[in-house]
Amino acid sequence: MIAAVTGATGAIGYAIAGNIARRSGWEVVLIVRDTVRGEEAARKLRSTTKNTGIHVKTADLGSAAAIRALRAEWDGPLHALVNNAALTPRRREETEEGVEAQWGVNVLGYWRMANAFHDVLSASVPSRLVNVASYWAGGLNLSDPEFKRRTYDNDSAYRQSKQADRMLSVMLADDWKESGISVNACHPGDVNSRLSNNLGFGGSASPEDGADTPAWLAADSEAGVLSGKWVSGRYAERETFADDNKMMAGLRELLDLSSR
Predict the structure, then answer these.
(1) Which of 165, 182, 196, 259 lies at a 20 to 30 A Cα distance from 117?
(2) Span between the terminal Cα atoms of the chain, in Å
(3) Which tens digits make up the pLDDT trace of 172-181?
(4) pLDDT tens, 39-62?
């Protein structure tokens, strides 16, 4: 079984990769932006998990071209894709495409990765897509998601990105419901990380605690029956953000435009 974890050199991503790697029969691909850091993370994980099947692939998830290149070089199955990579810059930044960084990586990166690897996931069923989101979500502004007219605030940008991630997870679950691919969004817990520190928070949960629910959704047989859910602490419930049909339609339009 093969799992891919984006943002795998961050605190939570590294712990998610380690949790899955400790499970019998799993190999893990670390998808990273910095190859040197990625190879160091892989070496540490091979040592601590005793799993030699840990590999590294490099991609800037704020770049559609990089995601296409990653997909083009992928060889073999993929049973679980964990979209975990996220940014929370304190000042407004842009990707190489000129997109506000949180929208470009936290949202478009998730959407593009899901669609780029849909055929691989479909060929590997039963397979799973896990989108790491947050309970700290809301305030999605579809008229100005990139803060081109609003004053940039990294907390507001993060919250709306996580709302979008939760909503797009329901969209994909509906789109793929006949495919054998389950799609869920989850909260990893309040982990003290660079991401949370940039938002002005600390965090009482360890990275290992934070990894528990995403890894469970990705690799545990018990979680295989779930799809289209919002999951926190392994507890699944209906995603209420998806109840707003107008917002869902508006978000899909934005996401579809980004894919052209």
Answers:
(1) 196
(2) 32
(3) 999 999 999 9
(4) 999 999 999 999 999 999 999 999
HEC string of 161-205 equals HHHHHHHHHHHHHHHCCCCCEEEEEEECCCECCHHHHHCCCCCCE
Residue 214: alpha-carbon gap to chain centroid: 10
Residue in the structure block whose two tokens are 């990894």: 211
Residue where the block lists tokens 């993060």: 158
**Across 96-103, average pLDDT:** 96
Two tokens at 39? Answer: 């190879």
- The token duo for 14 is 């590294």
CATH class of 2-258: alpha beta
Buried b (16+ CB within 10 A) or exposed e, 29-40: bbbbbeeebbbe
The pTM assigned to this predicted structure is: 0.95
Instruction: Name the nearest CA neighbour of 153 among 100, 194, 83, 203.
Output: 100
Name residue 232's amino acid.
Answer: S
